[in-house]
Write a structure and sequence with these properties.
The protein has about 400 residues and is of the alpha+beta class. Helices cover about 20% and strands about 25% of the residues.
Length: about 400
């Protein structure tokens, strides 16, 4: 973490400490790299993963949450058959604690189940709690006759030993610290959430491909997308985003199963909406209405929303602003961003993604070299968001 982040985190924790037991604990997200699978492969029925995680609070126990569904371009779909999950938590390296479900090492998830939490997992001795900032490794084997589900958007973090072995012959390495098979940078599977009793804020993101960074070209970064890299180093962070999804679909029937995860957050970030404008020509007022419906799914959360970065074409691969052309959505995008900056009802604040990535406010153009397709940021653009977002907008929980 940067010196500024360390300073902010220290001040934040001092405030929380002064409140002591006055702040009630809740079962909140304490991992910061979880996601919902977005792809099914019916030809492969067995997959072994080791996925690195970081804890954002010291908690007496952890619980892993799994579902048997995946996201689609328009909503959600069932996994297709009973899905069997075995898992272990490796911490420290070489020490694996088995995860159990109602006392069993194997979880049989019925088709379409939205969420099942594991039994509480205590830390290994001599630890009396899972340490905050600890790097842990979630070791997971999934088996399903209908095929494996995984994320095609999130890439494994190879520098931290993330490994994916996608094969019908994948061995069960959940309890074997010597297992290191599989490829670095593969398409991963893992828990949909990692929760524990916490008094710190935790964040859930409801976004599209700009939120989950599906266009990022490297797997050597810890976080992905517009907001995770800013908030993940400080808080528990759970990503419920899906590329290509529209806010209208999320506000409708396309977000049914993911609603079960909203209770594990104190704050939400809503960034969906650009696909509605690009695909269906929706107006600023319509997108604002969809977002109102979305935050209504969890009215007790403190919700933040994002402005929308430009959408342009270019004749020089977005190396300059002079050779960019705005698209037909730009006028509505500007109107929408003005609404966000003015403060929409129901939101606790906003994150100005557009100001970070746009050449000038309301110019309609990307900063040079910040995009490669006129719709999504490249790694350099996401890095601007990582360092440019003021995370102090997430306030400590009140007694």
């Amino acid at each position: 973490m940067s010196a500024l982040t360390n300073m902010l985190t220290s001040a934040f924790d001092q405030y929380q400490a002064t409140r002591g037991a006055a702040i009630p604990a809740y079962l909140g997200q304490v991992g910061c790299r979880t996601f919902i699978p977005d792809t099914i492969n019916p030809s492969i029925t067995r997959q072994m993963n080791v996925r690195s995680e970081f804890l954002r609070d010291s908690v007496p126990y952890l619980q892993l949450g799994f579902g048997n569904f995946y996201t689609t371009t328009t909503g959600e779909a069932n996994g297709g058959a009973v899905r069997y999950i075995t898992a272990g938590i490796e911490f420290p390296l070489g020490t694996i604690t088995q995860v159990k479900f109602d006392g069993s090492p194997t979880l049989a998830l019925a088709d379409g189940v939205d969420k099942v939490l594991s039994d509480p997992v205590l830390p290994p001795l001599p630890y009396i709690s899972w340490p905050r900032t600890a790097q842990i490794w979630i070791r997971t084997l999934q088996e399903c006759a209908a095929g494996i589900i995984f994320s095609s958007s999130y890439k494994a973090y190879g520098l931290l030993l993330d490994r994916t072995h996608t094969s019908n012959a994948a061995v069960d390495g959940t309890m074997d610290p010597a297992w290191s098979g599989g490829s670095l940078g593969g398409n991963p599977f893992g828990p949909y959430c990692i929760v524990g009793p916490t008094t710190r804020p935790s964040i859930v993101s409801v976004h599209d491909s700009r939120g989950n960074g599906g266009t990022m070209t490297s797997n050597s970064t810890t976080y992905t997308g517009e907001v995770q890299g800013a908030f993940g180093p400080r808080f528990g962070f759970m990503d419920l985003s899906r590329g290509t999804q529209q806010a209208e679909q999320i506000a409708g029937a396309g977000f049914t199963k993911r609603k079960a995860y909203l209770i594990h957050a104190s704050h939400g970030i809503c960034g969906a909406g650009v696909n509605d404008m690009v695909t269906n020509g929706r107006t600023a007022a319509q997108v604002a209405g969809y977002r109102q419906t979305i935050i209504g799914f969890a009215p007790k959360l403190k919700w933040l929303e994002t402005t929308i970065a430009p959408v342009t074409t270019s004749t020089d691969s977005w190396a300059t602003t002079a050779n960019q052309t705005v698209t037909s959505i730009n006028a509505e995008r500007i109107l929408f961003n003005q609404r966000v900056r003015a403060g929409n009802a129901g939101f606790d604040g906003f994150i100005d993604i557009a100001d970070l990535l746009e050449s000038a406010r309301n110019s309609g153009f990307w900063k040079p070299f910040m995009t490669g397709d006129g719709l999504h940021a490249v790694n350099a653009g996401y890095a601007l968001c990582d360092t440019g977002i003021d995370t102090s907008i997430v306030r400590p929980l009140a007694a």
